[in-house]
Amino acid sequence: MSKEHWKNKIQIVDDFESDTASLSVNSMGVYFKFIEENKVIVHFKPLNEVFDTTIFNSNHGVLLNFERELIDEDDIEYALDVMFLFNKYPELEIKDAKEVVLLRQIINLIKDEFYSELASYIMLKTLLKVLLLHLIRSQKDDFLKQDLHQKRVFQFLELMEANFLNETNTHFYAEEIGMSTKRLNQILKEKLNLTAKQIIQQRQITEAKRRLIKSEISTKELAFDLGFSSMSSFSRFFKQYVGVSPSGFKKQH
Question: Which of 83, 110, 143 is at the close of a domain?
């Protein structure tokens, strides 16, 4: 995949300023503020949120913004761990010298690849995954201690992945899991800061983007494949989230 096709999926900014824009409403952000040789503070920006501008009191940091689809293309457990990390830990302090050195090395590899004339999307995506998995591993104890609510989140995401093309009603998933829609949304908001409907809609957008880029499907066919009653309702939905129409997005890619 040429750089022209993926340059809007990931963004790296050195000497970050607070008015640097996110990629889109579907983007996630992580800001590394290196305080000293053996200390780094990591700030996370979940989907549909913004960074607290008070964290940018110095410009000695590195910002990574990336589209959600970069994690959605992998296995569901990894995607859930990333979303859980971003929503549970708005700020993470790492003071182990070896950990800080390793983080610097991974970030430098990402930067080297990103700025290279021969930059590879697959390489960047892989390095980003290494970085995120490293941050997840630093909180390993919390992820290993799965409470009942976290297991419910796994259940919902697994059901959604298998059924989102045909089922977009929250009631279906709540009934399959064995709870009320209100309770399901409470659990999802607690763990992922999103409702079931929002998660399903984000998954629809990711799937729509993937098909528009990788296949010759028409907008009308895609609309009905994703469960929309008309092409116009799908186009309005897509433009609301992405900022351009499905046909406009396809032309861009």
Answer: 143
235's tokens: 């186009």
Q: How confident is the model at residue 142 (pLDDT cuts 50, 70, 90)?
A: very low
The answer on 130 and 232 residing in a single domain is no
Q: What is the extent of the structural domain holding 170? A: 148-252
The residues that bridge with 64 in the sheet, in sequence order, are: 12, 30
pLDDT, tens digit (0-9, with 9 covering 90-100), for 229-244: 889 999 999 998 888 8
Q: How far apart are CA 64 and CA 115, in angstroms?
A: 13
At 65, phi and psi to the nearest 5?
-110, 140
Write the CATH number for 246: 1.10.10.60
Return d(Cα 11, Cα 131) in angstroms, integer: 15
Give the sign of the dihedral formed by CA 226, CA 227, CA 231, CA 232: negative
**Residue 54 and residue 132 share a domain:** yes
pLDDT tens, position by position, 180-195:
999 999 999 888 888 9
HSE-up of residue 155 (Cα within 13 Å, Cβ side)? 18
Enumerate residues 6+ apart whose C-beta is below 8 A from 162. none
Domain boundary among the residues 107, 123, 143 is at 143
57 close to 65: Cβ distance less than 8 angstroms: no
Higher-confidence position of 146 and 92:
92
Q: In the chain, how many domains are there?
A: 2
- Nearest-Å Rg of the Cα atoms of the chain is 19
